[in-house]
């Protein structure tokens, strides 16, 4: 359960203090970590006999051996080179240290499994509260889910960076339920504002961009006050991530509570979307509009249908913009200078984006 690197770091530190060579083996005698430069796996049979004996420690060929248990079965065997009394003390200290690591890692593993099952709605209500009590996880506190999507499949480096941002926050949980997303279940203060919650997202984004050199999107669910509702916040964050990437791909922090009209379009059935597009454009398609036309339309919307400001930002004459709008009206029957037509066209563009996203998701 404990990585070999952690075991190696532990005994290296103890070796520096005690000046004694230490080796950690599994119950079959296989060496997992050692401070000896030329330690050979020559005691497999002796270790096997020791593991199956009632003795807690044993002197074998110049080495003092000690057992480390997990649920009453031997998980590790520690050996310390030497036969004097100090060797016994070093062995007991090493065993105690690794035993504590084993307990800590096991507790963390249990909590991680619990949080994953909680997020995925794999637990009965009674199980949520019973297991939370055993794992010393509070129920009635405010929490929010941050969903962090990396640019590639789950990168251990990204996970390590996120963990480093909350090193002593024992009430926060960082896990993953698939290959692309990291999930932070964050406890927030009673008076935490939306602004403060967003600051945490921005801090994570800036850190990952600079340290992990990874392009990420971060979405947020709503704040929940009961442990059973954490899965609700997670589902909201998942929806926010998809909706944000469809309609606001230039934004890297997306709030479930700020999805706007994209929230409605995302939940429309595709046949209805197709019917709407055909009603607006007939046999034409959004793909038929050239880049210049689409850029003009988007800039016109950005400037609240202001012809003068749009022409200025596009570096074109006002009459050129009017000509483009007239041409668009002739092709679609919609005059974007009229509020109702502009709204219809804006929604049509968003529906077309959604349909394209769903088509791509199927393949």
Q: How can the largest sheet be summarized?
A: 5 strands, antiparallel
Task: State the fourth-level CATH superfamily of the largest domain.
Answer: Reverse transcriptase/Diguanylate cyclase domain
Query: What fold name goes in the CATH topology slot of the largest domain?
Result: Alpha-Beta Plaits
Helix/strand-derived class?
alpha+beta
Strand content: 15-25%
Counted up, domains total: 3
**CA gyration radius, whole angstroms:** 30 Å
Total strands: the figure is 10
Order of helices and strands: HEEHEEEHHEHEEHEHEHHHHHH
Name given to the CATH architecture of the largest domain: 2-Layer Sandwich
> Judging from the principal axes of the Cα atoms, what is the shape?
elongated
Just give the CATH class of the largest domain: Alpha Beta
Would you write up a description of this structure?
- This protein is an alpha+beta fold and 363 residues long.
- It folds into 3 domains: 4-102, Beta-Lactamase; 138-263, Alpha-Beta Plaits; 268-361, Arc Repressor Mutant, subunit A, CATH 1.10.10.
- The chain is built from 13 helices and 10 strands.
- The protein has helices at residues 4-18, 44-51, 85-119, 125-134, 156-165, 194-212, 230-247, 261-266, 270-281, 291-302, 307-314, 318-332, 339-361, and strands spanning 22-26, 31-34, 57-60, 63-70, 73-81, 143-150, 173-175, 181-187, 216-220, 253-255.
- The protein has a 5-stranded antiparallel sheet with strand order 2-1-5-4-3, with helices on both faces. A 5-stranded mixed sheet has the order 7-8-6-9-10, with helices on both faces.
- Strand 7 (173-175) and strand 8 form a beta hairpin.
- 25% of the residues are buried.
- The mean pLDDT is 87.
């Amino acid at each position: 359960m404990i990585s070999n690197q952690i075991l190696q770091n532990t005994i290296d530190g103890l070796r520096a203090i005690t000046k004694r060579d230490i080796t950690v083996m599994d119950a079959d005698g296989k060496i997992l970590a050692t401070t000896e430069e030329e330690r050979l796996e020559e005691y497999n049979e002796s270790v096997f006999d020791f593991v199956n004996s009632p003795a807690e420690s044993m002197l074998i060929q110049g080495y003092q051996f000690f057992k480390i248990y997990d649920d009453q079965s031997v998980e590790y065997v520690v050996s310390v080179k030497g036969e004097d009394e100090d060797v016994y003390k070093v062995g007991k200290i090493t065993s105690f240290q690794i035993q504590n690591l084993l307990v800590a890692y096991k507790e963390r593993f249990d909590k991680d499994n619990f949080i994953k099952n909680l997020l995925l709605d794999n637990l009965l209500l009674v199980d949520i509260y019973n297991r939370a009590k055993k794992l010393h996880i509070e129920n009635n506190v405010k929490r929010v889910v941050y969903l962090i999507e990396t640019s590639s499949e789950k990168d251990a480096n990204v996970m390590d960076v996120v963990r480093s941002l909350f090193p002593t926050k024992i009430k926060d949980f960082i896990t993953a339920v698939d290959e692309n997303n990291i999930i932070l279940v964050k406890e927030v203060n009673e008076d935490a504002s939306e602004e403060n919650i967003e600051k945490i997202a921005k801090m994570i984004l800036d850190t990952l961009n600079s340290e992990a050199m990874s392009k990420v999107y971060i979405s947020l669910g709503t704040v929940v006050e009961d442990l059973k509702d954490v899965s609700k916040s997670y589902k909201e964050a998942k929806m926010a991530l998809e909706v944000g990437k469809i309609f606001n791909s230039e934004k890297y922090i997306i709030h479930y509570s700020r999805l706007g009209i994209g929230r409605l379009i995302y939940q429309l059935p595709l046949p209805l979307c197709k019917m709407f597009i055909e009603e607006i454009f007939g046999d034409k398609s959004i793909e038929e509009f050239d880049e210049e036309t689409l850029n003009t339309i988007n800039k016109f919307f950005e400037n609240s249908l202001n012809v003068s400001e749009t022409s200025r930002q596009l570096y074109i004459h006002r009459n050129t913009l009017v000509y483009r709008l007239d041409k668009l009206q002739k092709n679609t029957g919609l005059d974007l200078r009229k509020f109702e037509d502009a709204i219809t066209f804006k929604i049509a563009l968003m529906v077309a984006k959604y349909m394209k996203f769903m088509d791509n998701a199927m393949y």
